[in-house]
Design brief:
By secondary structure, this protein is mainly α. The longest helix is centred in the middle third of the chain and has 29 residues.
């Protein structure tokens, strides 16, 4: 197999920060999904489950609020 030198992508500091933000968001989403999976497997609610529900409300609660001028 023939090896070649890697292609370098030049990125500015804001580009790097955007990538870091996306990775951090993916990590928090995957941790939340893992908690949801554990909750689905064991339906008994405990304090960790209530904290997860609070995180969901904090993250996605704004989507249900009406927006615009005529509200």
């Amino acid at each position: 197999m023939i090896r070649r030198s890697p292609t370098l992508i030049y990125m500015t500091d804001p580009d790097v920060q955007d990538v870091r933000d996306v990775i951090a968001k993916q990590k928090t989403d995957s941790a939340l999904l893992l908690k949801m999976k554990r909750m689905a497997e064991n339906p008994a609610m405990d304090t960790e489950d209530m904290e997860m529900l609070d995180q969901l409300k904090a993250r996605y609660g704004d989507r249900n609020k009406p927006r615009g001028m005529f509200v």
